[in-house]
UniProtKB/TrEMBL annotation, chain A:
Coiled coil: none
Location of region: Disordered: 1-22
Classification lineage: Bacteria, Bacillati, Actinomycetota, Actinomycetes, Kitasatosporales
Species, as recorded: Streptomyces lacrimifluminis
Any GO BP annotation: transmembrane transport
Keywords: Cell membrane, Membrane, Transmembrane, Transmembrane helix, Transport
Protein name: Sugar ABC transporter permease
InterPro entries: ABC_transporter_permease, MetI-like, MetI-like_sf
Sequence ranges assigned to domain ABC transmembrane type-1 in this UniProt record: 87-295
UniProtKB/TrEMBL annotation, chain B:
Coiled-coil parts of chain: none
PROSITE patterns named among the record's database cross-references: ABC_TM1
Protein family per UniProt: Belongs to the binding-protein-dependent transport system permease family.
Gene Ontology CC entries for this record: plasma membrane
Record's protein name: Sugar ABC transporter permease
Matches recorded under InterPro entries: MetI-like (IPR000515), MetI-like_sf (IPR035906)
Annotated localization: Cell membrane
Alphabetically ordered keywords of this record: Cell membrane, Membrane, Transmembrane, Transmembrane helix, Transport
Keyword hit for Transport: yes
GO biological process terms held by the UniProt record: transmembrane transport
Membrane association type: Multi-pass membrane protein
Length: 314, 290
């Protein structure tokens, strides 16, 4: 596979950088890229096209698909109350979990920022739940803790949250908040990139701590806040395992934890309505795309990039 | 780690107090955070009658039989088999991701080719693509290929660099390596392949380790993909076997269920303890350089 090429002495003498023929180097690039290209075509682009097509059919995995036009979409939007309950549950969850998680992450990052001793320890310890929290094991623990007679019930007399519509959703949201470590680590790294002179200058000018936070920390950190916001929002839209575990896979009580992905799984893989589930997947794709686009659009007014004003300082 | 900060002569007293208060706050938060894990460990060793009835965190005596029951497994499949299955899938995924993502990353970071800009933008966009958008057709494709209820649908995509996040991570790392290295290698007669394998790849090791660890943990924790592709109990992973307990939540099964949960969580905890530096740094860098 290796294409060794010995540079000819005559050329090296005159032209300093030894250039290989362009075509040959380009060929090498495509060899490196080939697994990715194959994956992008066969496992991303083709499936996206196929699922778009299937969303207009009644495909059920066993019989060949029949074209039904927009029926899946109209049924979804006008005749399926469970669909709207899944939309409601997902949006409520995103709106509760993401701001709480990011807020806690920022507070903890600020607390750890100026700590001299123990910072590395806390950083790792707070980060651990982010790795463990996605597991079925922890989801089962969560279910037991918030169950009737579980620790939370015993401490606060809340009863079994997982059986109460409304509170079951909060249970799942709290599991997400518990995993604030990953965005916290990113915040902390961002905070450490803010030049200390800015705070020193503010100190000399007599700016209070809160004033420094608003005028220095927030603008300087805004690209990182934006990154975390986009990432966590997209992830929150796709949450599955905790909702499955807490509700026993049913999305109950009263569909209150029937997250979008859970309902998609139910339609596609339990009820074998692959066409309908494909339509759901495409709506999810469009909604996530739209939310991301809106976040990017609003970001122009509040995200501050130092390189914009200082001529490319990185 | 000590929670007390020794006040140095030059530092005013209020600052020292604030520091102690900060440490106390952090420790308190840590206790709340780690409580569920302590609860898991304690419950996995509790006798059946104490799981719900007793308010104490610690069991009155250690009920090791929970683990013995857990080792027998679920649906006549032993835990060892489940563990091997989980390891097989995670191991295959790690190998696939490290190999395919580093190859693609080298092309994006260092080589010139047509449409590099648009293709790179497309690659970045796929990071944000919801997995569910391609799930059903992927399932249909693997179904047509007769690969449902095998491990191929779980491992094969990793060999095709479908997890763009890692391609991006490695690209960022490779861009930080000095170009002179390859120029020197080229003058010594190395083509792009040899300079990749002999010069660049060894230097990319930290990013590759980060990729490997995250792939392992994410694959280990994955539930959705395993749920749809695997259905015969002897092919189950630990995660899928645990799922069997979800519906049968009778309290008598609690002890063994959480014993099995501990077993399922153990590899991640060990990975975390061994590689926490790589994990935390890798996560930190993902946000900063992007």
């Amino acid at each position: 596979m290796t294409t060794t090429q010995v540079p000819t002495p005559a050329r090296t003498a005159q032209t300093p950088p030894v250039k290989r023929p362009k075509r040959q180097r380009e060929g090498a690039a495509w060899v490196f890229l080939s697994p990715w290209v194959l994956g992008a075509c066969l496992l991303t682009l083709l499936p996206m096209a196929v699922s778009l097509y299937l969303s207009f059919t009644d495909y059920d995995l066993f019989n060949s698909p029949n074209w039904v036009g927009l029926r899946n979409y109209t049924q979804m939007f006008t005749e399926d109350p469970r669909y709207w309950r899944s939309v409601g549950a997902t949006l409520t969850y995103v709106v509760i979990a993401v701001p709480l998680q990011l807020g806690l992450a920022l507070v903890v990052a600020l607390a750890l920022k100026n700590m001299k001793r123990g910072r590395a320890f806390y950083r790792s310890a707070f980060y651990a739940p982010s790795l463990l929290g996605a597991s079925m094991s922890v989801a089962l623990v969560w279910r037991a803790l918030f169950n009737e007679g579980g620790t939370v019930d015993n401490l606060f007399g809340t009863g079994g949250w997982i059986f109460k519509p409304g509170w079951a959703l909060v249970t799942v949201a709290l599991l997400t908040v518990w995993q604030f470590g990953a965005p916290m680590v990113i915040f902390l790294a961002g905070l450490q990139q803010i030049p200390g002179e800015l705070y020193e200058a503010a100190e000399v000018d007599g700016a209070s701590g809160w004033r420094q936070f608003l005028s220095i920390t927030v603008p300087m950190l805004s690209p990182v806040i934006f990154f975390n916001l986009v990432l966590q929002t997209i992830q929150a839209f796709q949450v599955f395992t905790p909702a499955f575990a807490v509700s026993g896979g049913k999305g109950g009580p009263a569909d209150s934890t029937l997250f979008y992905t859970l309902y998609l799984y139910d339609r596609g893989f339990v009820a074998s309505h692959m066409g309908y589930a494909s339509a759901m997947a495409w709506v999810l794709l469009i909604v996530i795309g739209a939310v991301t686009a809106v976040l990017f659009r609003t970001s122009r007014s509040w995200v501050f990039y130092a390189s914009d004003t200082e001529g490319g300082v990185r | 780690m000590t929670a007390t900060a020794t006040p140095t002569p030059g530092v005013r007293k209020p600052v020292a107090w604030r520091r102690i208060a900060l440490h106390l706050g952090c420790l308190a938060a840590l206790l709340v955070m780690l409580y569920p894990l302590a609860w898991l460990l304690a419950t996995s060793l509790k006798p059946a009658n104490e799981v719900i009835a007793s308010l104490d965190l610690l069991p009155s005596h250690l009920e090791w039989s929970n683990y013995r029951t857990a080792l027998d497994g679920v649906n006549d499949v032993s835990v060892w088999r489940l563990l091997t299955n989980s390891l097989l899938i995670a191991g295959g995924a790690v190998l696939g991701n490290v190999l395919s993502c580093s190859l693609a990353a080298y092309a994006f970071a260092r080589l010139r080719f047509r449409f590099r800009g648009p293709l790179f933008a497309f690659m970045i966009a796929t990071i944000m693509l919801p997995h569910h958008a391609v799930l059903i057709p992927q399932y249909i494709i693997f179904n047509q290929l007769g690969m449902v209820n095998t491990y191929w649908p779980l491992i094969l995509p990793k060999f095709l660099a479908t997890e763009a996040f890692f391609v991006f991570l490695i690209v960022q790392f490779m861009r930080g390596l000095p170009r002179e290295l390859e120029e020197a290698a080229r003058i010594d007669g190395c083509g792009p392949f040899r300079s990749f394998f002999l010069v660049i790849l060894p230097l990319t090791r930290p990013a590759l380790i980060t990729t490997a660890i995250f792939t392992f943990i994410w694959t280990w924790n994955d539930f959705f993909t395993q749920l749809i592709y695997l259905f015969s109990p002897d092919k189950f992973t630990l995660t899928l076997a645990l799922r069997s307990f979800v519906d049968a939540s009778s309290t008598s099964a609690f002890g063994p269920m959480f014993a099995m949960s501990v077993i399922a969580l153990l590899p991640i905890v060990l990975f975390f303890l061994a590689f926490q530096r790589f994990l935390v740094e890798g996560m930190a860098n993902s946000g900063i350089k992007g």
